Amino acid sequence: MPDLTRELAVARAAARAAGAEALRLQAGIGSYAKADGSPVSEGDLAADRIVRQAIRAAFPGDAILSEEESDDRARLYSRRLWIIDPIDGTRSYVAGGGEWCVQVALAIEGEAVVGVLDLPTRGLAVWGAAGLGGGLVDASGERALTPVDGVRDILAGGTSERNRQHIARVLAALPEFTHLPAQSVGVKAAQILLGEADLFVHSRRIAEWDAAAPAAVIAHAGGTATDLAGAPLCFNSPEGRVPGLVFSRRADHADLVQRLADAGIRCA
Asked: Which string of DSSP letters, residue by residue, matches 68-125?
């Protein structure tokens, strides 16, 4: 694996600038529906421009996959792919809430090796990179992400009706867990890294831009990121999706995955 110090620095700076601009635009912002019915706002588009411009300036030969841009299939022939979700949690963002973040990741030959999650409303960012570990920066400065003592059995999960049904199945399989809701995959990953939750499970196929940065940060900051079969996640697929997610910083990650499988919870 090459030294990723420069890639991480570019990703961190781009995510921070995009988050600051999105936060500046948030008050009173409106949205409209894209072709797939999901919302997009001027904040999403502004954040996307900032991140893409920074990446193209620093790494002009790399491919980019972003939620807010048409998919250039030439990415499939690139060993380096930047994967961007300029605002993960747009519904919360448009509603004036705080459960959203900027997500920037780099995958090399399918492995998410750099990830940054910038949470502007909380004034913090978390990051992880292969060979460099993980870290946290907030108002008190920068520090390493350290393991959280104790197991509290808290499941970070979604709030939509479809997600509530999914979470109910997971909680039935893992009844010792309690539910901590959030609207963004990146926010859920940050909750795990900050010791606010222990586990995140998503049992449906999910877009790579939703999954890549959270998976990279979890994996390189001392946690485990797998699919529902317990296998490593692979990015830059033709369909741009991965088969479900399980994130944790727990020693019993594999046992939890097996219990979900035993309960028939597999990627739909």
From this structure: TS---GGGGG-SEEEEEEEEE-HHHHHTT-S--EEEEEEEETTEEEEEEEEEGGGTEE
The verdict on domain 154-262 having CATH code 3.40.30.10 is: no
Q: In the CATH hierarchy, which fold is given to the domain comprising 5-144?
A: Fructose-1,6-Bisphosphatase; Chain A, domain 1 (3.30.540)
Nearest to 134 by CA among 124, 143, 145, 118: 145
Q: Which H or E element spans position 11?
A: helix 5-25
Q: How confident is the model over 22-54, as pLDDT tens digits?
A: 999 999 888 888 877 788 899 999 999 999 999
Report CA-CA distances (Å) from 132 to 114, 157, 175, 194, 215.
Answer: 9, 28, 36, 18, 15
CA–CA separation, 196 vs 189, rounded Å? 10
Q: Which two tokens stand for residue 148?
A: 């959280």
What is the spatial distance between Cα 127 and Cα 119, in angstroms, rounded to a whole number?
11
Would you kindly state where each structural domain of the chain is located, as residue ranges? 5-144, 154-262
CA–CA distances in Å: residue 15 to residues 9, 66, 111: 10, 13, 20
Predicted TM-score (pTM) of the model is 0.94
- Residue 267, pLDDT score: 74
- Residue linked to tokens 């930047």: 82
